[in-house]
Design goal:
Layout: H1 2-9, H2 11-22, E1 28-37, E2 40-52, E3 58-59, E4 66-67, H3 72-86, H4 96-99, H5 113-117, H6 129-140, H7 148-159, H8 176-189, H9 193-202, E5 211-212, H10 224-227, E6 235-236, E7 241-242, H11 250-254, E8 264-266, H12 268-282, H13 291-297, E9 331-336, E10 340-345, E11 350-356, H14 370-384
């Protein structure tokens, strides 16, 4: 009864999505949300719009596979680090150079694993490594994109770089911290990041449609039958095609599709299952992740004191959160550039997953202001039930 009532109340969410689609803010979106009330789990979902507009319109489905973009940071890399911390292979307060010795160059020996997870390492937030590789290919005629050499090129550039501020002095969100964390997972595990995540994160959670897409630069696009399962992203100017079934992020593409900051694909239901598993673990109802470890990673680290970052996870910034007005201070979440997000309210036992492909057909610098509105409407639907 509660589920059907919540589902009816989601009509306001559907109308908001339809308006955004009509205004060309997004091609479409899939939302899956749940709340536990008096021990009963109530779930609702909605699907609106298109998975692709070009080269032809493809309708969106609940099981459409999305490029999660920076949700990779929490679903893959942070979760893998949790495993390594839990089994004693990694300590959060060890220098990163203990696991990746070349990283210690140019004053980075004081950077700890904890600093990377909280975006307070002092590394530059982003660099256009893909452009450097494209130029290098042009000059040498050598194929680099998607090769092990390209991956090594990106890591070596980061390892040789200098910090822009002292570790812990500021929190500046970016990708380079998590590119390094992905390399750390591989060094400690002696296995590729995608294999580690598949074995230690996705399979234990029963996630069968959550994966990285490995791809070298000279491979032809995936067959049409495969691409139709995916939500398309950008009509990419430097790739010269609609990106679909391969990672949108240019640096992750340069690294072969598997990186600590981007590259993961999944469905709304599987991202939601991941969130519910962590919520259950936090409340001591699941042993897939140890409750004490989840609580540790969900705690704000105060690096620096004004920072809202937990370990890998963001928390609501009062008055300016993409989670909207109703998520409690005991919430964690993350966003992805392609138009994806997950928010988990630990106190109100609510999980909301929004997957869209807002960068299709053209990537915009929009802040995707639809997110807080959608979260508010979803929370109001649960409250009304």
């Amino acid at each position: 009864m509660k589920r059907s009532l919540v589902q009816r109340k989601l009509g306001r969410v559907e109308r908001a999505l339809d308006k955004a689609i009509a205004n060309a803010e997004i091609p479409g979106a899939v939302i899956v949300a749940s709340r536990r009330v008096d021990g009963e789990r109530v779930e609702a979902a909605c699907v609106r719009g298109s998975a692709a507009l070009r080269p032809e319109r493809v309708p969106l489905a609940r099981d459409t596979i999305f490029d999660l973009a920076s949700l990779t940071k929490v679903l893959a890399t942070t979760a893998a680090i949790m495993r390594l911390v839990d089994d004693g292979s990694v300590s959060l307060d060890d220098p990163v150079a203990k696991y990746l010795p070349p990283f210690g160059e140019r004053g980075k020996d004081a950077v700890k694993v904890r600093h990377l997870l909280t975006h307070s390492s002092g590394l530059k937030p982003w660099r256009a490594f893909h452009e450097l590789l494209i130029e290098k290919e042009r000059k040498t005629g050598q194929r680099l994109f998607g090769t092990p050499e390209a991956r090594s090129f990106v890591l070596e550039r980061i390892f040789r770089s200098s910090l822009v501020h002292e570790p812990g002095a500021a929190a500046v969100y970016g990708d380079l911290d998590f590119i390094v964390l992905g390399a750390l997972v591989e060094a400690v595990s002696r296995s590729p990041l995608d294999a580690v995540c598949a074995e230690r994160v996705f399979r234990p959670l029963g996630l069968e449609t959550t994966f990285f897409v490995r791809r070298s630069g000279d491979e032809p696009p995936a067959p049409e039958s495969v691409r139709r399962r995916f939500a398309a992203t950008e009509v990419c100017p430097w790739r010269g095609r609609v990106v679909c079934g391969e990672v949108h992020d240019p640096n992750a593409s340069a690294m072969g599709g598997v990186a600590g900051h981007a590259g993961l694909f999944s469905t709304a239901d599987e991202v939601h299952r991941f969130g519910e598993t962590l919520l259950d673990a936090w409340h001591g109802r699941s042993e897939i992740f140890p409750p004490e470890r989840v609580r540790e990673f969900f705690t704000r680290q105060r690096l620096p004191e004004s920072s809202d970052w937990a370990l890998g996870w963001d928390t609501p910034t009062r008055g300016a959160s993409s989670s909207g007005r109703y998520f409690s201070e005991e919430s964690v979440g993350h966003l992805g550039f392609t138009g994806t997000s997950i928010w988990i309210d630990l106190r109100r036992e609510t999980v909301v997953v929004v997957l869209s492909n807002r960068v299709h057909p053209i990537a915009r610098r929009s802040q995707f202001r639809l997110r807080p509105l959608v979260h508010d409407l979803v929370m109001e639907a649960f409250d009304a039930a």
